[in-house]
Amino acid sequence: xxxxxxxxxxxxxxxxxxxxxxxxxxxxxxxxxxxxxxxxxxxxxxxxxxxxxxxxxxxxxxxxxxxxxxxxxxxxxxxxxxxxxxxxxxxxxxxxxxxxxxxxxxxxxx
Amino acid sequence: xxxxxxxxxxxxxxxxxxxxxxxxxxxxxxxxxxxxxxxxxxxxxxxxxxxxxxxxxxxxxxxxxxxxxxxxxxxxxxxxxxxxxxxxxxxxxxxxxxxxxxxxxxxxxxxxxxxxxxxxxx
Lengths: 110, 122
Fold this sequence. Notes:
The complex is a heterodimer of chains A (110) and B (122).
Chain A: E1 9-12, E2 18-23, E3 34-39, E4 46-49, E5 63-68, E6 71-76, E7 85-93, E8 98-101, E9 105-109
Parallel strand pairs in A: 1-9
Antiparallel strand pairs in A: 2-6, 3-4, 3-7, 5-6, 7-8, 7-9
Chain B: E1 3-7, E2 10-12, E3 18-25, E4 34-39, E5 45-51, E6 58-60, E7 68-73, E8 78-83, E9 92-98, E10 116-120
């Protein structure tokens, strides 16, 4: 049961910028960090962004994150074919005392 | 290199039990919280449970509370998930994931194992 809402799909041509939104509430995004995971077909999810806008080592700076109030966004600039994947946001929820994930966004490179 | 290898999945009838294991290597296991996250094919991940570095603090998703038990053996660098009273809706790929800190709250999962498949069906 996803508590965080994402658009089901997003697309762009190579080189374009794509933005994915993640909408939550005061008990999760509104009061805690947002994390983003990338899941390539047939593989386990991989950490893409932590603490709202921090990139782990090895993640290209084409990826950027932001948070405002109870929403967050992930932007991919200079879109590349290898960015075609499912993207999930996540956050700790104070009311549930657990983690919640987003509904997921499938990014397609046209 | 950090490695997490899950095992113990399989086909089980509704109402029965199964125990998953996760073997960890490449990092100081007892410095970090650990988690189980599951995913049904075609759907997003669902966090299942988290355990602090020494097992002193444990938390579960409401969907598994009272049926699943998470534990760890720091001497063996191993994480476990005992799953009882299994239901069809527990069918999923179960991932073991390393937390970023010693406690389980408000941190990220990195890395994830490759998962072990649990199928609950008669």
